[in-house]
Fold these 2 entries.
Entry 1:
Amino acid sequence: MRSVSLLLLVVSPPFVAVNAWKNARNALSTPSDIQDGQTGVLMVLPPRQTDTGTKRIPDVDHPFIAPGPNDQRGPCPAMNTLANHGYISRNGITTFEEIILGSQEAFNLNRDMISGMVAGNMLTRGNPFVNKISIGGVSPIVPPLPGQIDGPETQGIAKHGRVEGDASMTRSDVHIGDNRNFNQTLWNTDLEILAQFGDDGPDGPATVFNLQTLTELVRQNLESDQLLDPEVYPTLKSGPLALKSLKFAVPIRRLNIVFGTTQQATKHIITSFFMNQTFPENWFRAASPVLGSPIPAQIAAALPEWVPGHNDENGVFVADPQAPAPFNISPGCANYWDVLTNAIPGPLANVTGVFKQNVDLLTGILFNGSGCAEPIAPAGPTNT
Ligand code: HEM
């Protein structure tokens, strides 16, 4: 099952400002839209936060509370952490706006970057008509898309394929284990690699994740999954091989969000987010809005032998097809082509009313962040 990278899609400020205004205006004037018994909820792009400095996180209004048995949690340590602290709904069923606001507040994430991430996930694994997405699996609170145009259930971000992929740092591959919950054995292996390659830091010798550690983590996970999982599909995007965009670069890039003001990915900090899914004590969010990082490209450059692809039915690694012209002009554009063509269900191109307004907002965010000259309509397979 192919999965794709949503992090390369980051929007430009003028586009989102115009759309925010249009949506705020429409929210006032749009009559209720009922489709297949569901009431549409118009999405409104939240403003950029005005307070963009550092501050202590969590504040007193957001204590850690462990999830209850009916709360959804899934493969993303960041979303789980936000839910465990109530920066998004503690039940794990959240919205476009809530994730953007929570990520700005708690991680000081650049609004346009997080908008692109939420847009891709909402279009592939949420219900963009009612504006709900599960950060775990199927939930009775998130209905199937009207007309069940993507199958009888809305899956949530833990569903393998489209976004969730193999060879993660702390989750098993879906074909050989639990792809949703933290895996202590995998984490122990990660820490062994850290102990070999890490920098010295406040937690002791070889306890800070550096580029070499991250590169070796990627190499080790890709190599072991290639052996262990005959159906492995580790990469997130297709596209020109020269672009060398690897799935692993994506979560690794996200790691720099969790450094906070220490500017160091220490063992203690990373363990808190990955294993305990909570903010470390005395943690301060970054001192300015977090956007990107050179780390993914550096890791990819260090691993030229790994190109986007997957194992075929005989367990032989096959490279993904490259994006065709004119979508091969940049990594971002090739990735946009991949997401729209292979991940976002095709029937979303033909929806109406509030459903269409929301899909247009989300696909517009992806297009505007892509660097492509022309947009593509969603054309991915359904019910996968
Ligand atoms: C706030 C910024 C975010 C950060 C710091 C972050 C961090 C991470 C990290 C570190 C992983 C990899 C875990 C591992 O390899 O074991 C991950 C995986 C994932 N995240 Fe997030 N994430 C963020 C936002 C989001 C959002 C907004 C969504 C969707 C609503 C999302 C959905 C996912 C999914 C589906 C995976 C699994 C991908 C895979 O299988 O490779 N993330 N995230």
Entry 2:
Amino acid sequence: MRMAQSRRILPPPTAGGCSPACRPSTGQQVDILALRLPAAFSVLAVGLALSGCTPMDSSVCLVHLPNPIINIREAPRAAAPPPAPTISKRISDRTIVVDAGHGGKDPGAMPKFRGQMREKDINLDIATKVAGDLGSRGARVVMTRTRDVFLELDDRAKLADRHRADLFVSIHADSSAKKWVSGTGIHIHTRANYETMRVAQCIASSFRRNGISCRGIVRNNFHVLREHNSPGILIESGYMSNATDAQRLNDAAYRSRLASAIAEGIADHFSR
Ligand SMILES: [Zn+2]
């Protein structure tokens, strides 16, 4: 009874073939099986199983196979390459935590020039713009803060784990006693993995494409990069201690351009 039911789903001898992923790897392999198993259906089922098809795939393949008897006695075919892993990297499937550094009682780097914004305010503005851009690209975005409040570093990091974030991005602005030092910087953790380095490289490339000066990618043992399980990036948006950078960071249009470049780099990473 079972056999009769099985035979009913055997395909009519039609033209066309099975997808490479479902093809028996070589005719030779199937021939050996044919000597042991009398029923053509069984041979095909085992052959397909050997080729890497799941049971569900096998039934799909059977429908599209040409005449099974001819198929199993053909000369050996070149082995089909293993199917590429189908990892969806579209940004719309991703959760990204955007962290505006400092806030509340912690102002961050202090203004060095008259009328200069505080670091915590620069960070929040850029982070909000990055979040908006990523959101408009379809990402699920979580911000650590959306207003001027103080948050412990650990609470920021924990948010990444709580939301099982695919990426944690922290936005800061730098300061140095050397007033000539300028440019953005991209920080990853000392033991950052390959994926994290790749995100950093995508953002660096985006900075280059968008004419934003970047000092490079630096490994650092920062708390917000270390205390969670997501790939983590910390971006220093420029030097508040450098006159040119300070002027740029005070300019809303520049902050928008910078935020777009960050979002573009992140989107680039997830689209590859
Ligand atoms: Zn900072």
